Every structure is written in structure tokens, then in C-alpha cells.
Amino acid sequence: QTPDCSITDFRKSHTLSYLVKELEVRMDLKAKIPDDHARKILLSRIKNYTIPEEEIGSFLFHAINKPNAPVWLILNEAGLYWRAVGNSTFAIACLQRALNLAPVQYQDIPLVNLANLLIHYGLHLDATKLLLQALAVNSSEPLTFLSLGNAYLALKNVSGALEAFRQALKLTTRCPECESSLKLIRCMQFYPFLYNITSSVCSGTVVEESNGSDEVEKSEETKMSEEILALVDEFQQAWPLEGLGGTLEMKGRRLDLQGIRVLKKGPQDGVAKSSCYGDCRSEDDEATEWITFQVKRVKKPKGDHKKPPGKKVEASQAENGQRYQANLEITGPKVASPGPQEKKRDYQSMGWPSPDECLKLRWVELTAIVSTWLAVSSKNIDITEHIDFATPIQQPAMEPLCNGNLPTSMHTLDHLHGVSNRASLHYTGESQLTEVLQNLGKDQYPQQSLEQIGTRIAKVLEKNQTSWVLSSMAALYWRVKGQGKKAIDCLRQALHYAPHQMKDVPLISLANILHNAKLWNDAVVVATMAVEIAPHFAVNHFTLGNVYVAMEEFEKALVWYESTLKLQPEFVPAKNRIQTIQCHLMLKKGRRSP
């Protein structure tokens, strides 16, 4: 006999059921993959390694039917049992019911177990969603942060993993897993191209990309990797890794390296006489300099190696050289040159951080796409008057569809390439807006699943295709689902019917889609229109600033982030981006003043 979690007399709790409902039909969870780690935990609970798994299953079966402890705890153990066996279907069933029965303050326990099941199956992005919900319930459990760090690390979200492991270490005196993972992160920071870390797509998430290079380039990359590793190993003899810090510039990405140790060499024997961290200046040592350690690829003549037949190298020599270029910038003391020292600039009076402050600041990942959303409530519109959140849904699930053949008008912006060619957009979607969508009626009604929200919007939109409010809500749904064409269909419809003073709501959504699709010129046009219609909304200014950052028009981006703060002085994302851009302009370009 094995634990059966299919009994139906449990009370239902719908607050978190939407998180795991979709897991029941996931085909990638159907494979049987035993979890040795779960088995060790299960056996450690009974403290007897001689009991076979069958007897453990029988014990749990009887415990569920005649419980002498809270049923949710027994179901949680049953979920652990099925994880160890490798039956994900039964494990999900047990943990889902444990989640339904657990008191609110303990719901993080089955959520973390579910997340670790997903991690075992390689579904790291799904796992992060569950772990973030678990942290919302209880943020004092180090295991939750450890699991989140592991998921982020698998997704190559280095900054997210680093923060998660640090939080875990703050909550426990000993975390070997955290320490070993932090070493891996250090390697990722040093050699990002070895781990295929390129750019972020949302909220700091780093994705793995294929650069389309052929076999020759891959073999050369491996050789180049070995050369750089050897070079850095030699460099580390004078700059120990234990005290590493500063910044690493690699393939256009700037990464913080914590705690560089600066060694002062003796004038005669070269032996280190003292060391310091970070800003090493003292009252007697006013001068500092940037020391650049550069690794650059030198292409061999074409005759030095043979290309495999049928292969063609299209990248230019300059492009290949640039691909493997890295700068490691460190601060350290220097011997002042003869003559009077230059007066120290007062960066604070200019409103910019000093170079030394830039080293200590946590830089924002400017390549990350930050999604923005202008709610209709900003126009004094109550969304619950347009969408019925109260009536239980009786019908099958629906999705909100707009008129894709709406005739071109002066309002639909079909003159823009991204709008007229919306069927062929390279749009990755904006899943980070899921919570916004699910909380549309949160002031009066509980949070709903994505499927429920989509059905409710579809029901009313089907009866009223001329409502710009409903079309805008449908566009938000398709932004979350990653369907750019359907989202723009709805935004064209919203723009066609919206009064002029309301058009900035669909315009901001359209600007985000075009930004995500890398159609930055179109995005600038649309976001500028939104600012012109409603210059008093900070989100419109912030959205335009984000587009200019993507275009690397940093000075223009600064203008719009600063105007954002004039409207909303405590808007932290704008503050952080301003500081990052200022440091980027000063340090990367060698500028010592604005």
C-alpha cells in the first residue's frame, strides 16, 4: 500500500491553487525521475535506513486514513515520499492537498517542496514563482532562499542568485551549499562568456542565447577560454581571489566583484607591505588611478588553421576581436607624478556620485527590460464597473480576442513598422505583469488565476468590442501570455475608440511591446505621444527613459528619469537608473565630470 492523496473530502482553499493547477497537466513532469536527495531526507526523518520504501509508503497510507497529526503535515511527507520514488504526478497531488489544508502561516512548506520538485525536473522558472510566493508567506526560512538561489543560478540570473544566497547566510550560521554556490557565481562573474551569460530580458533574469557561430568559432572560443584562464591565473598571483572586488567589464556587461585587495609593493624587494579594500586612499594618499587589465584576442593569419569543409566564417576580424575583449578595473594607490596635484573635484555639488562611490554602489542591470503599466484607475475609472469579478465562472475558459482586421485609421498607428508588421514581431512576452493582471479587482475581490481573468475579460469584450478599457485589459492579458500580435490587435482597437485624453493608457502598453521587440525608434514615437497626452504621469516619463537606455542614448535617458523624479521624488527605480548611468558615463568613458 502506498499513500493515496486523491481523497476528495478535503476543504478547498483557492488562494494558492492557481499556482499548482497547471502542473497537473504538464507533460514534462510525467517522466519518472527518482530524487536521491528527497530519499535521504525521507530516511533521515525516520532515522532508520533499514526500512524499505514499501513499508514507508504503507506507514504513510495508514497515517493519512487515521491521522494522529495535522493531515497537511502527513500529506507533505507523502509528497516527499513520491518525490523520492520519482512519481511527480502523485507528489504534486499530495503537495497540492497539503497546500489546501495548511494554515496560512505554514503554506510556505508545501510550496518549497513543490518548487524543489520542479527544480529536480529542470523547471526552474516555474519554481521561482512558487518560491517567491513562499517568501511572501514566510521570509525567515533559509531553505527557501537557498532553493531560490539555486533556481536563479540555473537560469543564469547571477545577481538574483547572489542576493538569495546572501539572505540565506544571514538567516543561518552555516550554509555549505550557499558558500559553494557563491564560488560558482564568482566564476560566472569572472568568465561570463564561458557560461553563455549575455543579456537580461526581464527583472534581472539572464538568459542563455545562441550566437549562431559555426564550429570553427566554437573551437577558437574554447582555445581562447584556456588562454584567458591562464592569463587570469597568472594575474591572481599578485591579486588574490580571497580579496577580490571592483568591476569586471565583459562583452558590454559590467559586473561587480566584491572586495578587491590592493597590494602596495615595496620599492626595493617588491614584497607587499600593506593591503586594503575598496577605496584605499588615506589623508596622505590623495591620488588614485584606474588600472586596466585587458585581455584581447589576436586573430591568427588565416593560413594558420584549416576550416572544416562546408563551413564559412562570416564574422569579421574586428568583430571576433571585440567578442573576447575584457576590462578588469581596480582601484589602487599610485605614486604621484611630480608637480602640484590636481584639485579634487566636488562631485557631490554637481549631483553625481564620485568614482569611488560608484565602486560601492550596486549598479542596475540597464539591459534588463522593465515592463511598465498605466492602470485605468489613474483616469478615475473603476475596473470593476467594466469587468464582472463577482459572478462564479460556469462556462469553459475563454481568451479575449480583438478585431484583427480593424480598418486602418489615423488613430491605429499603422504607419509604424512594428504595428503594420505585428504578425512577425520578435516579442518575448512580459510575464512579470502576471501579478498586475491577477490583481485587477484586488480592492474588492480576491486574486484570480490568469485563466479566470482572461475568461472574465473575454465575456464582456465579446459583447462590447468598442470599449477601449476592455481592449486595453485584453492587451495586458496578451502581454503576459507573450502574444505580441494579439496584444497589438487589442491596442489598435483601444486607440481607435479611446478619447484623446485616455490614449496614453494603450500607448504605454504599445511602447513596452515595441521596446521588447527591439523596435526602439517606434517605441520612442509611441512613448513620446503618451508623454505629450499626459505629462503629469511619472510612468510615461519613466517608460520613455527606458527606451532611450535600450538605444544607449544615456544622456536623453537621464533627462527623462530626472523628470520622472520631479513628478514622483521617491520613485526608487528611476533613482537607481540615474546613478548607474552617471557612473557608466564617468567610469567607462573615462569622464571625470558630467
From TrEMBL:
UniProt keyword list: TPR repeat
Listed Basic residues bias regions: 299-310
Region (Disordered): 299-320
Database matches in InterPro entries: TPR-like_helical_dom_sf, TPR_rpt, TTC17
Start-end of each TPR repeat: 142-175, 538-571
Coiled coil: none
Cell inner membrane is among the record's keywords: no
SMART domains xrefs: TPR
Entry annotated with the keyword Translocase: no
Signal peptide: none
PANTHER family associated with the record: TETRATRICOPEPTIDE REPEAT PROTEIN 17 (PTHR16091:SF1), TTC17 PROTEIN (PTHR16091)
Protein name (Swiss-Prot/TrEMBL): Ttc17 protein
Organism: Rattus norvegicus
